[in-house]
Every structure is written in structure tokens, then in C-alpha cells.
Amino acid sequence: MMSAVPSPLPVAPVAPAAPIIPNASRRQASVEDQQVTLAKAMQVACNRVAPTWPLDRLIAVNPWWGFVDQSVQKVSDMMSHLCGTRLTMPTEWYLAEFKSKRISEAALAKAVKQHGLTLDIASFIQACSASSSESARFMLLTDALDAQRDLAHQPACRDVVTHAIGQHCASWFDEGQARWKLTHATSLYVAWREIASYDNGPSLFTGIDGIADRIAALPDTHEKLIEVVCEKLKIKPEEYETYFTALLLSINGWAAWCAYLNWQAGLQGKTDNHLQQLLAIRLAWEWVLADSGQHEDVVDAWHAQRGLPVNESGNSYDWVWQDALELTWQAQVNQGLALQVKSTPESTKSVRPAMQAVFCIDVRSERMRRALEASDPSIRTHGFAGFFGLPIEYLPFAGHEARPQLPGLLAPKMRVVSVSSDREKTQNLFAQRRLRLGVAQAWGRFRTTASSGFGFVETTGLSYAWKLVKSSLHSTKEKAADTAALSASERDRLVPVLENIGVDESIDLVAGILRAMSMTSDFAPVILLVGHGSQTANNPHAAGLDCGACCGQTGEVNARVLAHLLNRVDIRYGLRVKGIDVPEDTLFVAGLHNTTTDEIRLFDVQDDVKKIAALEQVRAWLAQAGQRIREERAPTMGMPASKPEALMESMRERAGDWSQVRPEWGLANNAAFIAAPRQRTQHMNLHGRSFLHDYNHAEDAGNAVLEQILTAPVLVAHWINMQYFASTVDNRRWGSGNKVLHNVVGGHIGVFEGNGGDLRIGLPLQSLHDGEDWVHTPLRLSVWMEAPRDIISGIVHKHEKLWQLVDGGWLHLFSIDPESGEVYRYVKSAENGGAAYQWVLESAQV
Fold first, then answer.
1. 284-307, pLDDT tens digit by residue?
2. What does the alpha-carbon distance between residue 409 and residue 716 come to, in Å, rounded to a whole number?
3. Reduced 3-state DSSP string for 370-411
4. Are 679 and 341 in contact (CB under 8 A)?
5. How many C-beta atoms surround the C-beta of residue 168 within 10 A?
6. 3-state secondary structure of 697
7. pLDDT of 46-75, one tens digit each?
8. How many helices (H) and strands (E) does the chain have?
9. Mean pLDDT calculated for residue range 615-621
10. Rounded Cα–Cα distance for residues 358 and 371 (Å)
């Protein structure tokens, strides 16, 4: 008999078994995930690098632009950790500012409270003396090796690597300075691997054998190199981003140049991978030094030290000082704004101005506007971006390459060319200049070739003594790119005009510009459109003293093009249809403000017989204004008081002196951006520290002009402000050092300080320091906008980058109430953990 089989217990249904994945497939998936993580980290690190523009198009850039998605104080901690730099001045400097009353007690007390500290001023100062602002430094392998070396008698590995990379990049990116190319390789990385595999210099300097052989054995592509070396150096995926960022910061100058190439490619809808290749080269150096077998103990110690955390509070006291310094300056401006004359008599408003002058918002224009208005009460001045709203590039006469004449943030949409009075004369002069330039270039190539160099010097050496003497004499030569191979009379016959643009498009363009200027009525008989440019000799950074809104060029071309358009009868008719009635007797005249000598040159007015008397009066007013500014600037330049004629001559000599390291102070001490009707600031002496943009909210239906100002001129001003700020707080890393030691790299790429090393970015020390003390005070930009508060905040939140600058503390934002004139600050609310923002009425008494 069979036993009964028990009934089975009820069980939950079993899910279908997962497919069995072979180990090889799992490894493949893991490798692919790691590659994705690696690529993302590499992209993030590369995006952190801000671009640097070439010397002939030099514009100011915030070197921390890639970090503005985080707060400025957090970035300060990151920079301290990643590369040992700081975003504030030393504590001793702030103490000196406090002692000299440039930081007020009230501002310091307010800053201490804002940072949540329950200390009185005396206790805070004592706490500063006891604290340390040092943060644990992220260590690269080269740093670990250097920690074991006798640096008093041996070169640092970091310096050897930086010099080697710098020499290779200078050769690879060269644009006409060198006559020979070292290699025909097709990429930066491949060229480096080819050349460095024959270079025994690094082994000689570091004492580490076999570096060239190990470079020769590296992977063929930069992508594979990064993947392989990260594995061999045991870099964890969570370390990729920090490690790559630190590597790029160690060669930040050349990284910035590669970022510029990618920026330019982006404006054309393309991409560029030079920065990734540079990262691969710097990473390769870590590996070839580690793989020697000579320093295994150092490599092991480096692995242990690499993961040290960021110290997020190391320099918080310095930020209290920085806030107090800025609060002191802001209170001074607020006091001036509060003193504005409340209203202008109607009888005065209705009087037609004798002259109007539109200047760039550059801080140097603030002095000129103030001085010009003092010449006659019937003069009105206006502030507008120095490219005058023209999205153009300019092709110099008979040139081969066009240059941008607009902010570096934008891509040109139109082209300007120069023409003579008729087509035949233009063509003849074109051919003559091309011939002259060709002869000059051939002569230059001949005297610099290897075969003729020594014989040339032996034959013509003494004749060059005259050239040396000539260079030492006073010079008034203008930019060589525009005037080379042209006589003065030939140059004067040329007029820059827009190419291939119709009447209707021209009318729309000009109408938009006039509205953006808040200049649609009450036109004067003469209206100057004044660009600006500097005049210096033997100065690689000369373009940095020209107009930042014109991409490091003077504003001459833009001013002349706009004046030409505004003087055309057909365009005036079209403007009248659009509600902008420019009187028939109004003449627009282009001018150029020489910011070194404070002279203004007028263009294209020689044939206007009807306006001879008016123009003579204009020139007299301009001369008076220039004299006032020169007298105001002379003490800051270390120039003794003298008669007007002698001072003028001294300024001209300074501009043409090829040994002068401080021809002018540029935009040093910039601190504010004010967009308001001129009446708001006309009574104030802002000492050349403020960007002044005219803006009348009552005429801005739809707030389009306000949005344009906040998203374009304010960003340009922020870049300028941060370049001066960064070059001051740490000139060794973010500035370009001693200009006496500069050597131009690659024709126009940048400068070395000495004969090699990293490409130097930022401003020379002599542009910020007079030899005894800092001329530039590093303050973050304070922005005052005369417009309703809710509209300003709405625009700020609409634009990501603008919001990041405000939210991260990269700039300060204020609103001037159009009705009451009261000033409000945009600050984080105490509610919701500080996530929300509110407008708080400012007191001018801090």
C-alpha cells in the first residue's frame, strides 16, 4: 500500500529567473559605465576653465567664470584647496584699510552680524589674529615628488612639467611668430608625444630616468591615454572631477587659451577638443613620473593623501572684511544718490541742448562726461555700450582677416569695410596697399630666416641704431593693423561702412540703438558719438586698455559707422515713420577719446561747411574738458603740477614712451555699474570708478532695454571687474606678473613671464600697483538699476547666469526707486533657510 502524499503548502508565485549575464558582458558594462563617468568628469573640469582672449583682441574675463554656479565664498575655499590660491586679500591688508578708515566701524559691525558672528569689533579683530585661513591642499603627484626634493638646489618637478608643456603649446599654437614647425602631426597630443619622446631634458632636470621612453610608449590617442592612466594611477571615479580640475588649474594659462578656442568654435556652432588634449598631456606627465620605479614610497603616500576634504571655513573671516570694505563703498554711493536734485525746472527741460555726447560706459568716460558737462550747462552727456549696439566685425582696408568689434560674449552678424570716395579710387588704393604689405612681409621673412639671420645682422647692424633712437623718441603712431602701408592722407580718405545691408534693415538697426540709448527726442544740433582707445608704446597688453565692448579694439569704427547711418536722409525718414524725429539740422559726429592723453579726435567732418562755427565751439569744449581731466589724473600718475600746455606734452610723451610701464591706469579701481537717467548721478564725482549707462524706465515699454542692459553690459562690466579683482588678490596665479619680463608668445597669443612656463593671463602687476601700494581696490561689482524692483528681480530670475552671479555673491544688486529715489538692496531672506530673496531699504549712513 502506498502512503498518501501530503498536499503541498501554498507558495507565492515565483518570478521568472533573470537572464544569466556572462561575466565578460558584465565587465563590458562596467567598463562602459566607467567611461561615461570619466567623460562626464572631464567635461565638467574643462567647463570650469574660463577663456583668455589673444593679445590683439584682449578683453577682460572673470577667471572663475566656470565656477559661478557656486557661491563666491565656496569657490574661494575650492581654489584654496585645489591650487593654494585665495580670492581675498591678506588679513593684514584689511586691517590696514580699517586703520586708515577705508573700512568703517559701522560697515564692519554690519558685516560681522551678517555672517552670524556674535562678536564686537575688538573681539573680531582678535579672533582674526588667532585664526588660520589655510586649507588642506589637494596634492598632485608632482607636488608629492617636490615635497621630497631639495628645492633649494633642484628644480621642482611641477616647474619642469609646466615649462615643458608651455614650450610645446607655444610651438603648436604659434600663429606666425616662428618660421618653422617642429612637426607635421595633426593634433596637440600626438605632436607632444612625438616630440617629447626624443627630449631628455626633463630626465636631466628631475633626475628621473627614462621619461622620454615612457612617453613614446603612451597610447596613441588622448582619449585612451586618460582612460589608461586613471586606471594605472588608481584614481577613483569619485575623484575624477576634482583631480582633472586640479590638473588644469596647474596649467591654467594654456588651459584658458584652449578654452578660448572652444569658446570661438561654440559661437560658430562647432566644438574644439584642444582642452581635453591638454588635460591628457598634463595627466600623462603624472604617470611618466610615477612609473619610474624610483619613488614608489612617494606614490603610495600620494594615494593616501589625495582625498583630503575641502576646508569650507578656512578664510571666512577674510570674507567678513571683504563685505565690510564693500559696504563702506556702497554707503558712499548711496549717500551721493540721496543728494540728487529732486526735479529739473520745466523751463530748463524744454531748452534744446547745445550739444550732446554719447560715451562708452567705460569708467574712464565718467571723468570725461563730468568734465565736459562742467564746460557749459547746455551740454548733455549719455552713456552706452562702446560698440554702440552694432553687431559687427571689421575687415581692415586691403586686409585678409576680419576682427570682431563687439563684446566677446557675442558673435558678429554684419561686416564693415572701408571705402574711398569712389569705386575706382578704392580699387587703386586697395592694390597699392596690398603690394606694400606684401613687400614688407617678404622683407620680414628674409631678415628672420635661419640662413640670412647672422649675415643680415652683420651687414645692417649699425643701420638699426637709427631705429633704436627713433623708437626712443616721442611717437603718435596709431594701431599698425589699420595704418601700416597707408599715408595719413590715404587713411583720411577711407570711411568704414556696413556691407550688404538694405535701407529697411538699417532703419530697424538704428531705431533699436537710439531706443536702447534712451535717446528718442530733444536732439541737439551736434551730437558726438565718442568711442575710446588708448595710446601706448611697446606694450603687449595695449588692446586691454582699448574698448572691452569692442573686443579689445578702439571704438572708432563703430562710432563712425553709426554716425554715417544717422546722417543719411533716407534713414532719418524711416526713423520719423517709427516715431523718432531727428531734426534736419542735427549732425552726428564720430569721435575717439584717447584715454592716455584725454584728447578727443573728431572724424569725417572736414566737408561740413554749415557746421564750422558749431564744431569750433565743440572742439573748444572738448579741449577744456581734457585739461580738467589731465589735472585730475596727474597726481595719480605721479606727475607734478604744471601748466596746461606742459602737462599735455608730458601726457603725450608718456603715451609714446616705449619704456613706460604705467602709461595710464586703465579701469583700475572700478567698483560700480549705474543704469539711470543722467540727472541721478550728474552732481556726483564718482572718481572714474563707475560704469555709467543711461536708462529711462519711463521710455522702456516692455522692459526690453532693461533686460538688455542686465544681460549684456552688466555681464561685460562684471568680467572687467573680476579680472581686476583676481589680478589683485593673487597676481602670481590670476595676473600676468611683471610686464618688464614679458615675452610675446605665438605672435599674439599671450605672454610668458621670462622665457617659458605657463601662459600668463590677467593684468600685469604694473597695471594695479604703483610700486608702493595698490592702486586698484578689489571690490565686487555693485549694480544700481533705476527701475521697479519686481521687474528687476523678474529679469534676474529669468536668466541663469545672471541669477548665479546674484545668488552666489559675485556681484551686489540694488534698485533705485524711479519715483522716490530710495535705494533697495536685493538680499537673501531669513525665511526658508535663506532660499528666498527680498528687497531691503538701504540706509546711506553705514
1. 999 999 998 888 888 888 888 775
2. 8
3. HHHHCCCCCEEEEEECCCCCCCEEEECCCCCCCEECCCCCCC
4. yes
5. 21
6. helix
7. 999 999 999 999 999 999 999 999 999 999
8. 33, 17
9. 95
10. 14
d(CA 475, CA 196): 44
* pLDDT 10s digits, 539-562: 999 999 999 889 999 999 999 999
- For residues 183 and 188, give the distance between their C-alpha atoms in angstroms, rounded to a whole number: 10
H/E stretch holding 443? helix 423-448
Contact 309, 82 (CB under 8 A): no
| Region of residue 760 (left: phi > 0; alpha: psi -120 to 50; beta: else) | beta
pLDDT of residue 34: 81
**Mean of per-residue pLDDT scores for the chain:** 89
DSSP letter string over 271-328? ---HHHHHHHHHHHHHHHHHTTSS-HHHHHHHHHHTTPPP-TTTTHHHHHHHHHHHHH
Instruction: Give yes or no for a contact between 358 and 837, defined as CB atoms under 8 angstroms apart.
Output: no
Sheet (strand 837-841) strand order: 690-694, 672-676, 782-786, 812-816, 823-828, 837-841
Distance CA(549)–CA(552), nearest Å, equals 7
Annotate 21-89 with DSSP letters as a single string. Answer: PPHHHHHHHHHHHHHHHHHHHHHHHHHTPPP---GGG-----TTGGGTTS-HHHHHHHHHHHHS--SS-
Angle at 238 between CA 232 and CA 240, to 5 degrees: 55
DSSP 8-state secondary structure symbol assigned to residue 152: T
pTM to 2 decimal places: 0.92
Rg (CA), the chain: 31
Q: pLDDT at position 11, please?
A: 40
Residue 643: how many CB atoms within 10 A of its CB?
Answer: 8
**Amino acid identity at 405:** Q
Q: Please, are residues 816 and 783 in contact by the beta-carbon 8 Å criterion? A: no
HSE at residue 414, side-chain half, CA atoms within 13 A, is: 21
Fill in the DSSP letter of residue 784. E
**Cross-sheet strand order for the sheet of 355-360:** 379-384, 355-360, 526-533, 587-594, 599-603
The residue whose grid cell reads 540703438 is: 513
> Residue 674: beta bridge partners?
692, 784
Asked whether 674 and 693 are in contact (CB, 8 A), the reply is: yes
Cβ neighbours of residue 278 closer than 8 Å, sequence gap 6 or more = 165, 169, 188, 248, 251, 254, 255, 258
Closest CA to 822 of 437, 321, 173, 338: 338
- Name, in order, each residue with C-beta under 8 angstroms of 597's C-beta and a sequence gap of 6 or more: 535, 626, 630, 648, 651, 652, 655
Strand 742-745 vs strand 750-753: parallel, antiparallel, or unpaired?
A: antiparallel
SS (H, E, C) 723-771: HHHHHHHCHHHHCCECHHHEEEECCCCEEEECCCCCCECCCEHHHCECC
CB 719 within 8 A of CB 59: yes
How, if at all, do strands 392-395 and 379-384 pair?
Answer: unpaired
Q: What is the side-by-side strand order in the sheet with 392-395?
A: 403-404, 392-395, 414-419, 495-498
Copy the grid coordinates of residue 794.
523678474
3-class SS of residue 588? strand
